[in-house]
Amino acid sequence: MNMPTEARADQAALDTLCAHALRLLAIDAVEAARSGHPGMPMGMAEIAVALWTRHLRHDPADPAWPDRDRFVLSNGHGSMLLYALLHLSGYDLPMAELRRFRQLHSQTPGHPENGVTPGVETTTGPLGQGLANAVGMALAEKRLAAEFNRPDARIVDHRTWVFLGDGCLMEGVSHEAAGIAGVQRLSRLIALWDDNRISIDGEVSGWFRDDTPARFRAYGWNVVEAVDGHHVEAVDRAIREALANADKDIGPTLVCCRTTIGQGSPARAGSAAVHGAPLGEDEVRATREALGWHHAPFEIPDAVRDAFDARARGKADHDAWRGRLEHYRVRHPQAATEFERRCSGALPGDFGERAQAMLHSVHREAAGPATRKASQQAIGRIAAALPELIGGSADLTHSNLTDWPDCGRMSADEDGRHISWGVREFGMAAACNGIALHGGLLPFCATFLTFSDYARNAIRMSALMGQRVIYVMTHDSIGLGEDGPTHQPVEHLPSLRLIPGLDVWRPCDAVETQAAWQAGVARADGPTLIACSRQSLPHQDRAEARLDDIARGAYVLAEAGGGRPRLVIVATGSEVALAVAARRRLEDEGIAVRVVSMPCTEAFDRQPDDWREMVLPDNVPRLAVEAAQPDLWWKYLAGVPRAAVVGITRFGESAPADALATHFGLTPERVAEAARALVSAP
Question: In the prediction, which pLDDT does 398 show?
């Protein structure tokens, strides 16, 4: 900064005071909770001062302002740094909440949680995923800017900032996320690395010796090296260099800040001892003395509050943007209306009517493709109605079938809607969380169901945050055949159904696939996973009046002859056809059988008692059929007179699909045999 020597000295003294305030707020909160991670906030304090007092564009009065900068704390264990910054900047986060750090129902949980604390953009803690979320946010910003900005008005014009640590860089997801960020040339993404060389187990040199700057340059990032992370002016200069790179559109930037964990603690600075435990009364006292901090716990000088207070400049930035938006609204009224709808997360007003028409059209077609093909067709229909729908596959586009007519390619120089993620399942899913969190776009992503394990923690985070992300998982059973047990999911469906807040759909035909997609799009409070078959599945006859029942998660697909069933067969996906074929055999034998298709157990569980009791009457034996590990089905079989499951309790085999079905007993005759045993049992 170009200012007189005396002014520079005054600014340096204020910067130091601000950094010490962040350190002590973290120390005091962790001490009060007797739990937490003080080391990172103490080590990154000057970096935070440089960014939050000089560069970050945000409005504490409106944390959801669409054109705000996004800030992600990827090393989320240092959450007290973020809480201190939000409090001091003027967000609705009173000091009382900092005093309640890590306590039940506080706004300051152990790791930052989106939706709990105003100003927290994403839930972080699982290391590396915050960086991947930020990649998704930057990707969303670039896509929306290309779609909505005009030469006379830029209404999408913000940056995405990330703090990250050594642990984030050790996690493999950082490689996946950083790689795609470089390929997509996300120039408005700026990451600041807390290079303190300490993790929980101690000095990282024994397990982390990457040449990180070279690694990121290889990804296509700009790198600013050897920044003194305890010198605000040095960090400020590095940030200005990163901003200059962003303006040149030459890719994202990593700023490497050399720091000391626990800076200021006489006995613990630079050691793992300060990473994840309170300093203790004696060391807190010694740290206060060493830093010259003579204020009581949680007491902040007015000069510090004034330096961090972002309310006035945030309002000014926000008001200037509102002015640009108003100008845009006059010059481009249709685009402005669409932009505001997208930012609100609302679907078009006519989408419900169009969705109904789509579903009835698919029903009338009565086609019998593989549900992965039916999913591709559903994507094409919905994408025509929802321009915000974007997505793609982890290098399996022609297997998952995720492209659609005229989708175009999303790349560094192309503004299409289809994303080729490469073989990056975890990074893909975590970036989709970032896209959803950013707002304005509805992301989906795809891979084989068995590889949901690679993406699982990001899928869990989608559910934890209640984000509208749609996962398309194809090749959903042993029906994929010759690829063998490594690629044949057996335990995946029940394990995914255990994730709270995740709706898992396994459609039996094209009609249910369309319904599953429409349910996922309409669901605003969480993610949806659609498990699709590789093999063709026959169209199932159903009354047109029952189409709306599919959204309930389970419904009567085929009623028993005479309407009084002696047995109910419950099935999902490809096994619905087996249940229907077995029913025909049993009905010919005089055994009245109802077939219930249950494409989504979670949606069914949310239904009123009377619906669930009507679909699955308590006094009738039940047989569940699914090509998966069977234990979960017993929640729907308990309490009835007799019950059984036809499923798979071991890993698959490599063979043609028909041979595998016979080998594992997934045939109409095997289902009928199990049904006869239930009906004839005393």
Answer: 97
Length of the chain: 682
Residue 553 backbone zone (phi > 0: left; psi -120 to 50: alpha; other: beta): left
Catalytic residues: 425
User: Which pLDDT belongs to residue 105?
Assistant: 98
Q: Which CATH superfamily is domain 351-531 in?
A: Thiamin diphosphate (ThDP)-binding fold, Pyr/PP domains (3.40.50.970)
Pairing type for strands 160-165 and 70-73 reads parallel
User: By the 8 A CB rule, do 535 and 479 touch?
Assistant: yes
What's the pLDDT score for residue 2? 66
Which one, of 212, 136, 170, lies nearest residue 421 by Cα? 136
**Cα distance between residue 284 and residue 342, in whole Å:** 49
**3-state SS of 271-303?**
CHHHCCCCCCHHHHHHHHHHHCCCCCCCCCCHH
Q: Which amino acid is at 622?
A: R
Instruction: Read off the pLDDT of residues 571-611 as tens digits, 9 standing for 90 and up.
Output: 999 999 999 999 999 999 999 999 999 999 999 999 999 99
Which residues of the chain are modeled with pLDDT < 70? 1-2
CATH class for the domain made up of 5-315: alpha beta
CATH of segment(s) 550-680:
3.40.50.920
Which residues are CB-neighbours of 528 under 8 A, at least 6 positions away? 468, 469, 470, 471, 502, 503, 505, 516, 519, 520
